[in-house]
UniProtKB/TrEMBL annotation:
<dbReference type="GO" id="GO:0030246">
    <property type="term" value="F:carbohydrate binding"/>
</dbReference>
<keyword id="KW-0732">Signal</keyword>
<dbReference type="InterPro" id="IPR018389">
    <property type="entry name" value="DctP_fam"/>
</dbReference>
<protein>
    <submittedName>
        <fullName>DctP family TRAP transporter solute-binding subunit</fullName>
    </submittedName>
</protein>
<dbReference type="GO" id="GO:0055085">
    <property type="term" value="P:transmembrane transport"/>
</dbReference>
<dbReference type="Pfam" id="PF03480">
    <property type="entry name" value="DctP"/>
</dbReference>
<feature type="signal peptide">
    <location>
        <begin position="1"/>
        <end position="21"/>
    </location>
</feature>
<dbReference type="GO" id="GO:0030288">
    <property type="term" value="C:outer membrane-bounded periplasmic space"/>
</dbReference>
<dbReference type="InterPro" id="IPR038404">
    <property type="entry name" value="TRAP_DctP_sf"/>
</dbReference>
<dbReference type="InterPro" id="IPR004682">
    <property type="entry name" value="TRAP_DctP"/>
</dbReference>
Amino acid sequence: MKILVKLAAGLLVAASFMGNAANAQTVLRSSDTHPDGYPTVEGVKYFGELVKERTAGRYSVEVYHSAQLGEEKDTIEQVRSGVIELNRVSMAPFNGTVKESIVPALPYLFRSEEHMHKVMDGAIGDQIKKAFEGAGVVVLAFYDAGARSFYNKQKPINTVEDMKGLKFRVIQSDIFVDMVAALGANATPMPYGEVYSGIETGVIDGAENNFPSYDTAKHFEVAKNYSLDEHTILPEVFVMNKAAFDKLTPEDQEIFKQAAKDSVAKQRELWAAKVKESRAKVEAAGAKITTPEKQGFIDAMKPVYEKHVTDEVLKKMVEDVRAVQ
């Protein structure tokens, strides 16, 4: 019933937007799974402030944090269909519909966050943005989500052998499922909001995520062993329903795109500070952080690349990413 109410409310807002794009006080709704104050939430809020200021109040943005409008799988469908106008989500759930989104999700592809920034801020990022339009959304920005690493409640992970037999929650993405399988573990796709109870009750042994998520979702309380393998440095996407974007005037489209670009710098600054804060917090709370030898993990990814990098477009993109210095 709650979901139906939310969807009905969203449809009313979407209808209002479509019919009154040039009118005053058009309110755009944006979803995020993370809690208030999280860097992605604050990045979208900042985007909204800039849009409101630069359109003289004609547009404003309401950010529904903490999965108020549903988990990412649900809200992706909402933004694609126009139920909501904006959404900040992981790129991985788009892997099945936007093939170019596969490349940033590939394990151990980016050498560092700086490498990822150069790639996503350049021609490769533009290529990926263009591809998303076929899925009914316009990518306004790529936001930082740091490096994702494995954590569990059973034991520290220092080698690939330590992964064997463990059950890990992953994003609902075939690449992540295959990555975990290649390491000898078992993958369980599961909504983000169910991870804590899943670990606590033994449905899963652990999950994989960045320090801020490990902290703010309190997963460190039930999974004390954090292994800094940094298997993916996967950017988030901040998207807008394409039909809604296309209804903007060319001038307003430029305002939206520039506001999003300006919000990236703000979000990255907030992200870097949050990573330091969250790592210090979980360590103080007793989390045991280990740094495994990565080469064994990297070597195990050959079948993942063979399965998912299947055509010349993706192969060329992988080569181009690796060539970025």
